[in-house]
Amino acid sequence: MAYDAELAARVRELIGEHAPAREQPMFGGLAFLVANRMAVVASNRGGLMVRIDPAESEQFLKTTGAQPMEMKGRTYRGWLHIDGEHVRTRRALKKWVAVGIDAAIARAAVAR
Asked: Where in this chain does the record put each TfoX N-terminal domain (predicted)?
């Protein structure tokens, strides 16, 4: 399954409001990198992969639509999968894009 091009366009628009980003095909989806770190990915599973601060994982998992990110039987620390139903509105998508941007910028700062 290919990623949702409409969702990717919506993410592109929102990211452009906050930070310079580049796009790169990854994991069968389209990744949006901020500060050279993946922030969000329009997933080929539908919905969105979102980078988070791992310390905030439990808080985010209580959010409707947030699940641990798993691929090939492995759970990825610092990543959540948000079902497409839970990013239909601009407000909901904007929230998750902001979370991903903040986490990517924080991760880039630590790497320096």
From this structure: 14-104
